[in-house]
Amino acid sequence: MLLHQPDITDSSRPTPLQALLGGIGIALSVHSLLMLNGSVLGVSGFVHRSLRGDKAAMPSAVGLVLGGIAVGIIGDVGTPEPHTASSLLPMVFSGLLVGIGTRLAKGCASGHMICGLSRFSLRSLVATATFFASAVATTHFAHDALGASGSLDWTLGDNQGRQFLGAILSLGTLWFAYACLALLNGTDNSSKLVSGQFPCAGLVPNISQSILRHLASFLTSLAFAFSLRLGNMVDPHKVLAFLAIPSSSAFDPTLGFVAGSALPLATLLYRYARAEEPKLGGKWNIPTSTEIDWRLILGSVIFGIGWGIGGVCPGPALVNFGRSLYAGIGVAEYAAWLVFMGFGGLLVK
What we know:
With 349 residues, this protein is an all-alpha fold. It is built from 14 helices and no strands. It has helices spanning 16-37, 43-51, 58-75, 88-105, 109-118, 122-142, 160-185, 190-193, 209-230, 236-243, 254-272, 294-310, 314-327, 331-347. Helix 5 (109-118) runs antiparallel to helix 6 and helix 7 runs antiparallel to helix 9. The longest helix is centred in the middle third of the chain and has 26 residues, at 160-185. It is globular, with a radius of gyration of 20 Å.
């Protein structure tokens, strides 16, 4: 039974240059959060933990929503409305399944596909292969009339350069603030960096570790939001066209170009540009489990079904919710998706 028949026209033209630049921004955002806070940029985890009162996860979730608003302000002047590939009821069902699935599998596309695969995690490899297969099958059975993909568009687009600049400025601001504090302190030791015990402490008094870590979480999510928009991962139509697989005339390889730049760069950074400890203190919070159990498999299958129904996963949903608030269009659909994603996560113990 078909859930929706999206009208995809010229907007489905593959945009490899935009996707490659978006992937670079994604990799830099992921590595920046890891280096500074020792944390994985897993968006579903941000949402689930925020709903359970984890204050450390909240700046990341807020950063993605505000990033969506910023995306709308600086880049979507001509076409401000965020796309939706499904009506309200399918979006509700999609959000619910994504919430249950990501909670069971402990990750989504950002946590497993980008962060996990860049660490050569076997769990993430199994999860990614499973939810992709599930999403491809769901797209095949749930969607029709995807249209034919157009020729490659190698331009940067009218406003996409601003998205790349936004991502670079967000990360640049974060690393500039860190560098200034390190120079004032005369050390790269995180415990001294945030203690205020350095010769020029009067210039930056009473800097708390939590404030710096919250700032890092917020700005990396802001950069991630710009990068998702630049790579067109916030467009459910492009996601569904990618999930249509190459044998279909509707196939759009844009998301493949995103992964093609994000994964190699994230892998190289993780392998060769790691520190002994997080720059802003705390411990490494990197998943170490190698267990492949029923929760991982079932959760990945359920997540893939939800992804294939709506064409959105947690990161793009938060960004598109921000964009919809700015544009005044699509608010109900994305708000419902996020509410039911959160509800689905709360159902899983």
